[in-house]
Amino acid sequence: MTAIAPVPAARTFVIVSLGCAKNTVDSEAMEQLLLASGHVRASDRGSADVLIVNTCGFIESAKQESIDTLLQLGASKRHDQRLIATGCLVERYPTELADELPQIDAFLGARNWASLPKVLSALEEARAPGSSLPLVELAPDGALDLAIATRRASGPSAYVKISDGCDQRCAFCAIPFMKGNHRSKLAALVLREVGQLVEHGVREIVLVGQDTTRYGHDLGQRDGLARLLERMTDAFPSLPWIRVMYAYPRHITEDFLRVMREREQVVPYIDMPLQHTHPWTLARMRRPHRDTDDLVAWMRDRVPGLVLRTTFIVGFPGETDAEFAYLLDSVQRLRFDRVGVFCYSHEEGTAAFAHADDVSAKEKARRRSRVMAAARDITVASNRAMVGKELDVLIEGRPEAGSAWYAGRSSRDAPEVDGLVLVKADELPVGEIVRVRVERALAYDLLARPV
Questions:
Q1: Which residues contact 266 (CB under 8 A, 6 or more apart)?
Q2: Residue 167 has what pLDDT?
Q3: Residues 385-426: pLDDT tens digits?
């Protein structure tokens, strides 16, 4: 466990978290480290002594959002404010960012966020005449072995990171350069976090990592995720929902599916990014998993009622019209419950970067629209089939003040990426699961009333 460095004075801070759910967990860990070090949350960015941006460097649009945020905060910060950039973009481009963004006072790598209190202490010392800025802190600091002092709930659902990094070397992906190889968090630390969140009233735990289904491999456990889920359900029988995100197709095992089928707390929902379905495209992507049709059929056979979410990349180098047509047909034939689609982004340092980006931006956008339209038709049909049925819904609150509706999610819907169940009622217990009957289906959402 990393020691928390003493600081000379308490500072107020704000953390801006960009990118995926895994970044959200890291941002919360950073916040807890700062609070434990005596620092205080600021009420807003304008009043903060320190502004911290947890960046994303996954694809071009995410990188641009991170850079835009840093530029905006850098341009508006007071002379006595400090701006710290951390996260994946910093891990990927530390020198370039330090050269091009002089308004940033310190850079902290994605694998070294546990050093944040030490960096704040160094910034205090750097206020002295003759000190140099910016500071750059990149060396790994054992962040994955760090037990977060206290997990605090901000709602009825919470993410828990069980691993970081990735051993795969997909041709399009820069995550291994930013996060390193796969490393599992010890089960005792995972269970400690879950226990703290359950004590705060959390009703849904969402397990995240770059490759959750590889959990435990580095610890010598072939079915580590299955064992972890069994320990979680045994330890916390009152926790209604446990959801698994970011599963790698190659690492789905029979035992994992058995646990999902037999343990009611593990919701029958898998987020499994496939990226494509055509075997030649997958080979160029360096995605060595089995035939997609067989894989999906096997999973659905093992887990009745399985909700399958996936993502695809269109416009990968060499993707022909025939390969795209194959993907589109797969989406229509296999009828995935939830689908996200990305246009291929040419990422420096990846194996595919050397290949010609031979699908035009206009054609990528057209292909994305076609896949999204096909997926939307399937979602609409699935939602219409739910009309008249009853669902358990986790109530998250009213979407806006004075609304006659409450927003919630069923076990079929993951936070932030899937649809909502909007429930019309005078009063409902926020943070609890209630039984509703679906009355109407929208494109992505359902309208319902309490039973």
A1: 229, 233, 242, 244, 259, 260
A2: 87
A3: 999 999 999 999 988 877 889 999 999 999 989 999 999 999
Beta bridge partners of 207: 160, 244
Is position 193 within any domain?
A: yes
Residue among 269, 262, 214 nearest 244 (CA): 269
Q: Is 437 helix (H, G, I), strand (E, B) or coil?
A: strand
Pair type for strands 446-450 and 433-441: antiparallel
Task: Say if residues 105 and 86 touch (Cβ distance below 8 Å).
Answer: no
The domain boundary residue, chosen from 113, 137, 161: 137
Cα–Cα distance measured from residue 148 to residue 169, given in angstroms and rounded to the nearest whole number: 30
- The secondary structure of 5-45 as a DSSP string is PP-SS--EEEEEE-SSHHHHHHHHHHHHHHHHTT-EE-SST
**Torsion-angle region of 262 (φ positive above 0: left; ψ -120 to 50: alpha; else: beta):** alpha
Return the C-alpha torsion angle 341, 346, 350, 354, nearest 10.
130
Domain CATH code at residue 415: 2.40.50.140
Q: Within this chain, do residues 270 and 188 fall inside the same structural domain, yes or no?
A: yes
Q: Determine the Cα–Cα distance for residues 377 and 384; give it in Å rounded to an integer.
A: 11
Alpha helices, DSSP H, located in 275-357: 279-285, 292-302, 321-334
Q: Which domain holds residue 59?
A: 12-137
Cα separation, 190 vs 359, in Å, equals 43
pTM value? 0.85
DSSP 215: T
2 occurs within a structural domain: no
**Number of compact structural domains in the chain:** 3
